[in-house]
Amino acid sequence: MSTRELALGSGVNASRFTLTDTELVVERAADKKWPKVKTSLRNVLWAELKGDAFEVSLLAKKKPKSPLSLLHVTGSVGDADKESAASFTEALMSAAYAGLPRQRRLKVFVNPKSGPGKAVAQYRKKIEPIFNAAKCKVDVTFTTRGKHAQEIVEKLPLDGFDAIVVMSGDGLVHEVINGYAAHAEPAKAFRIPISPIPTGSGNGLAINLLGLEESKDVAVAALNAIKGRPMAMDIFSMTQGDKRYMSFMSQALGLMADIDLGTEHLRFMGGTRFVVGFIYEVIKNKQVSAKVSIKIAEQDKRKMVQDLQAARAQARSTIASADASDPATLTTDGESSTTGTGLPELKHTGAARVNDDGWVTFDKPFTFLYAGQGPYVSTDLMQFPVSQPNDGLIDVVLQLQSDRGTMLKAIDGAEHGNPFWMDAQHYYKAHAFRVEPHFTKGYLSIDGESYPVAPFEIEVHKGLGSLLSMYGCFQAEFNLPPEQPAKK
Ligand SMILES: Nc1ncnc2c1ncn2[C@@H]1O[C@H](COP(=O)(O)OP(=O)(O)OP(=O)(O)O)[C@@H](O)[C@H]1O
């Protein structure tokens, strides 16, 4: 391990900076409350020497469970130390931004009405100072109405921004990707990565990118916008009649859609409304009827877990080598980056194709159909534990009727993905699927937004979209269950 040191001042004004391969340690005699700050190089936002003033801006945690705090540490450099301070500053900046571009140009959307309505205050107090410390070039819009962000994205000058930051819930991300789709150069627009800052009532995307615990700290999400790497994400086309929409997260019909969209009146309960809604719906035990056709790629649950683990190992090694590479070559992109500027054509549309090889049709009532990507759909439900961001497949769950006791048991461990193993939960990796509901009253939820209950088809566009991620894969722990002793 290599170590470099910079010692400034003396007596009560003394400060010492130690740079290792992984950390920066700052010791400050004058700061009685926090005399020794230790933080990973990822958390270093900027370092500079201006005249005789040396300054480092960083994020650090006071205690392991504290949120990240923004610190500006300054020191005065005497003439004799200028050269060593300059070379230390350079080494620190190179290490802090290894393989990453500096000073990203960010288009930021803040939805003042998202979640409990604190997004603007949080932006001003926590996020803006972090972006300023990292010297990002920020263009912020506080949305004033639905579709405001979408309209701006449709006309966005694509060469002007390195990422779009969405400070809201999943609904505003849905707007951004539909804005990309309506852009004059949609494929190029989709290459601009999205980085969410969770302030909504449903923040599945941020949880999946940052991790369940980490996503509770908005500073971590701000850091992701500064230090995350582009990670390709599959995008889903939803065709309904002659209309085409884009979805990045989920499509639900039956119980799960009813919980999501039919519990608005329980909004005062916060996240608990989904659990209350679930129990209520299970007691009703309603079934919905639809013809569902799925173009299946995989249906062996154990194989899905093994494939996930292999993909995560691969992502970790890609990120490790990206740390050592040049920013220009940096990407964990998918295939669609090379497919010109238009949106890909649909391949599977049309009922005539349904009987093609690989399509399987179900025509029995079911409790819910829930399809999507990203393990967590909310803090208490890991619905798609084996989901991968860029496998060109969508995870489709068809929950067949099972007794109320089994359904209620599914609540237990839902945040760890346990329902995945339920026999009544038919889980498929699919290239596409289509649904013809035999009813019109009820809810169809696309990324948590309400759409008319009418026939629709979903097709996957591998790697068409892009997210920023510090890990190169979704953040959720899911493993094979321990071996059960063989039954006699
Ligand atoms: N200023 C505004 N006033 C009202 N609605 C807005 C405003 N800005 C954006 N919106 C809309 O608010 C919705 C917010 O959805 P999002 O999921 O991002 O946040 P949320 O708080 O989780 O939402 P919800 O409570 O509906 O789940 C988006 O559909 C967006 O169109």
Give a brief rundown of this model:
The chain is built from eleven helices and 24 strands. With 488 residues, it is an alpha+beta fold.
Which helices and strands occur, and which strands form pairs?
Blueprint: E1 4-8, E2 15-19, E3 23-28, E4 36-40, E5 44-50, E6 53-60, E7 69-76, H1 82-96, E8 105-110, H2 119-133, E9 137-142, H3 148-154, E10 163-168, H4 170-181, H5 186-190, E11 194-198, H6 204-210, H7 218-227, E12 229-240, E13 243-247, E14 250-254, H8 255-261, H9 272-284, E15 290-298, H10 301-323, E16 359-362, E17 368-372, E18 376-378, E19 381-382, E20 394-399, H11 404-409, E21 425-437, E22 444-446, E23 449-451, E24 456-469
Parallel strand pairs: 8-9, 8-10, 10-11
Antiparallel strand pairs: 1-2, 2-3, 3-4, 5-6, 6-7, 12-13, 12-24, 14-17, 14-22, 15-16, 15-21, 17-20, 18-19, 20-21, 21-24, 22-23
Bound molecules: adenosine-5'-triphosphate (ATP).
CATH class of the largest domain: Mainly Beta
Cofactors, ions and other ligands in the entry: adenosine-5'-triphosphate
Radius of gyration (Å): 24 Å
- Label the overall shape: elongated
Helix content: 10-25%
Number of helices: 11
Structural class: alpha+beta
CATH topology of the largest domain: Tumour Suppressor Smad4
User: Distance N terminus to C terminus?
Assistant: 55 Å
* Overall pLDDT confidence: 90
